[in-house]
Design a protein that fits this description.
The complex is a heterodimer of chains A (399) and B (238).
Chain A: H1 3-13, H2 15-52, E1 57-61, E2 64-70, E3 73-80, E4 85-86, H3 89-94, E5 102-115, E6 118-125, H4 127-133, E7 139-142, E8 163-166, H5 168-174, E9 181-184, E10 187-195, E11 205-209, H6 210-216, E12 222-223, E13 225-230, H7 237-247, E14 251-255, H8 257-299, H9 301-309, H10 314-351, H11 365-388, H12 392-397
Parallel strand pairs in A: 6-11, 8-10
Antiparallel strand pairs in A: 1-13, 1-14, 2-3, 4-12, 5-6, 5-13, 7-10, 8-11, 9-10
Helix pairs in contact in A: 1-10, 2-8, 2-10, 2-11, 8-11, 10-11
Chain B: E1 4-17, E2 20-33, E3 37-42, H1 48-55, E4 63-68, E5 71-72, H2 78-88, E6 89-92, H3 104-109, H4 119-132, H5 148-160, E7 166-170, H6 178-193, E8 197-201, E9 213-218, E10 221-223, H7 226-233
Parallel strand pairs in B: 3-8, 3-9, 6-7, 7-8
Antiparallel strand pairs in B: 1-2, 1-4, 4-5, 9-10
Helix pairs in contact in B: 4-5, 5-6
Classes of the chains: A alpha+beta (399), B alpha/beta (238).
């Protein structure tokens, strides 16, 4: 017989009350664990999605600019000493100090071309890289498909050398459909695909293979810009931009700060909401523990009086109360951890619109049990002190 | 070594009730020798339970000195006094006061819980004491599975398991029938013969025949008045 056995025996006797206390803790811990799981999964998935799809760094040729004032007239955007961006700059990106963060490098050349009497803007791209980086580019129509066959995923298709991918407005303006022939700067091309409407300037562009456009515009090896998507889960985007600028001296590297900000904001807002809600649920759990333990102490005045009369010290009484709270809270923490984890795994994807799986986070187990136990012990301090301070003579009067 | 087990010198106890001071004990002076068995009788409100709680190191007197086996118990700190109760005193409360969720064996082991004895030793000591009070075959039973007399025996076993020199009993036969009450009193008598000092508060005049000495209390004082004795024995208010 020891203090632990006394505490355990009392828990067994007051099953419903202790179950109620435990459920308070379970709900609190489960909420925190579920939110932490979801936030972590969102962080990873949102980060990866933003990093993978869409550039977060744009590399442009370096140029000096000036704004000139002539009386009332302002001439802006006067550029001079424009450097050239070429294909030779691409390997420098992969050998830069930030190479480990580089995901997709998509070079492009933009130039005006003539299609009949019309002038259109043509963009030469490495099609697979460009369309992987921009998954919102989806084909509406594709050449060579049989009836009932669905259009392919653009990022996986090989656009032929003489193939063109037209934005929806460009296709309308040129009055062409898939498979039609187009003469561009006196060279013959075929419409490989037409894109869905995007509602942006990109609808008016014509896409073709980079080397083809370079030859067509007679600008071999030349590039207008390079879009880079980088993994910045583990480092700030400014750091990546600085690393690229060091490697490419003739360029200006522009970090797309708003992408990172958007990402941080979205995750931050959800995290803040989750933490506030978790805090409130934990507060309610703490109140449940407090009221249950106080009522337990009040009900046991007589028993505590007997313990004190037969020689239990105040510290022994406190030990009994803390051990009871500790045992219930450890169990509550374990159950809460598993409930929270399963809730996150099964309900998380619907709650947070996460497409991937939410992983089981083993590293949350000890903190979950720790929060539960710490909270219960902290909140039980008052009832434990109250019990220990019970005047044995007063308690015995109840007898 | 002192021959006196309990020494009370001019013990007074006042309580505050609704702003008024109520004198529960008025200058009680009393010596009880080691090995004595003493019953304290008196009407309700005479101060006998207050006296017992003061002697039991549970309720400090307002003034006066109380020594048990030569130790001024109210000079001890709260925690030392708890240790003192464990080592020196065995309480037998009214209505048995067993812990309902512990078996007879566990109830008897309670005073040993906070000692440094091994679990095996505690189990053996409790079992032996339960055998002594005639409950060797019912040690695994919960209090509600025992009769009143059996519960009282468990309460007595719990009081003596730590081998204290002094037993304090408050109305130990109050809720028992006459036959069972007599058996319990015989048990107290036996314990006294084995050398324990027994101080018992009782309403039942029949119990006094098992005790060596009877003290009468009236209005917070010891009374030697013959009329008071007659009144208490005949259970009439004076």
């Amino acid at each position: 017989m020891n203090i632990l056995q006394i505490a355990f025996s009392n828990l067994k006797r007051r099953k419903m009350k202790m179950l109620f206390l435990m459920m308070g803790l379970v709900v609190g811990v489960a909420t925190v664990v579920a939110f932490l799981n979801i936030i972590q999964a969102m962080n990873i998935e949102l980060g990866d999605r933003i990093d993978e799809f869409g550039a977060n760094v744009v590399i442009l040729p370096k140029a000096e600019g000036v704004e000139m004032h002539y009386s009332d007239t302002v001439v802006s955007d006067l550029t001079f000493d424009v450097q050239k961006l070429t294909m030779e700059d691409i390997p420098k990106i992969y050998s830069s100090s930030v190479q480990e963060y580089i995901n997709i490098v998509s070079p492009k050349l933009v130039g005006a071309v003539h299609v009949g009497k019309q002038k259109v803007l043509m963009v030469g791209v490495e099609t697979k890289k460009e369309f992987t980086q921009k998954p919102w580019f989806v084909l509406k129509q594709q050449a060579g498909l049989t009836t009932g066959e669905k259009v392919g995923e653009l990022a996986l298709l090989d656009v032929p050398e003489d193939g063109l991918v037209l934005g929806s407005s460009a296709a309308e303006a040129l009055k062409v459909g898939v498979g039609d022939e187009l003469i561009v700067n006196n060279e013959t091309f075929h419409v490989f695909g037409i894109l869905n409407e995007l509602g942006s300037e990109e609808d008016g562009l014509v896409y073709a293979n980079l080397n083809v456009v370079q030859n067509l515009l007679n600008r071999p090896q030349e590039l207008s810009m390079i879009e880079v998507s980088a993994y910045c889960n583990s480092c700030p985007i400014e750091e990546i931009a600085m690393g690229l600028e060091e490697a490419l001296q003739n360029t200006q590297v522009i970090p797309m700060r708003q992408v990172a900000l958007y990402r941080e904001e979205t995750i931050g807002q959800f995290s803040a909401f989750g933490l506030v809600l978790s805090g409130m649920v934990l507060l309610v759990a703490a109140l449940v523990v407090l009221t249950t333990m106080i009522s337990s102490v009040n009900e046991r005045t007589r028993e505590i009086g007997i313990f004190r009369a037969i020689g239990f010290r105040r510290t022994h009484i406190m030990q009994i109360i803390f051990l009871e709270a500790g045992m219930v809270s450890i169990l509550g923490g374990v159950v809460g951890y598993f409930m929270g984890s399963f809730a996150a795994i099964y309900a998380g994807p619907y709650l947070a619109q996460i497409q991937g799986n939410i992983p089981f986070q083993k590293e949350l187990f000890l903190p979950a049990v720790g929060i539960s136990t710490g909270l219960a012990i902290l909140v039980s301090a008052y009832p434990a002190l109250k019990a220990a301070r019970l005047d044995p003579a007063e308690a015995i009067r109840f007898i | 070594m002192s021959e006196i087990m309990i020494s009370l010198k001019d013990i007074r106890k006042t309580y505050k009730s609704m702003g008024d001071e109520v004198e529960a004990l008025k200058s009680v002076t009393l010596d009880i020798k080691k090995g004595e068995s003493v019953s304290v009788m008196g009407h309700s409100g005479s101060g006998k339970s207050t006296l017992l709680s003061i002697i039991g190191a549970l309720n400090p007197p307002t003034s006066g000195i109380i020594e048990i086996d030569g130790i001024d118990i109210y000079k001890l700190s709260q925690e030392k006094r708890a240790d003192f109760r464990r080592e020196y005193l065995g309480f037998v409360f009214q209505q048995f006061q067993l812990i309902p969720y512990l078996t007879a064996h566990e109830n008897v082991m309670l005073p040993l819980t906070t000692t440094k004895r091994s679990n095996k030793e505690k189990r053996e000591m409790a079992e032996e004491v339960l055998c002594r009070v005639g409950l060797g075959n019912k040690i695994k039973r919960l209090p509600n599975q025992l009769s009143g007399g059996e519960q009282e025996r468990v309460a007595i076993a719990r009081a003596i398991v730590n081998e204290p020199p002094l037993i304090l009993a408050d109305e130990p036969t109050g809720s028992l029938d006459t036959k069972t009450g007599d058996e319990i009193m015989e048990l107290f008598q036996k314990l006294n013969e084995e050398g324990l000092t027994v101080l018992m508060v009782t309403h039942n005049p029949d119990n006094t025949s098992y005790m060596g000495r009877t003290i009468l209390m009236k209005d917070g004082q010891l009374s030697l008045d013959e009329e008071d004795f007659v009144s208490v024995y005949s259970n009439k208010k004076v």
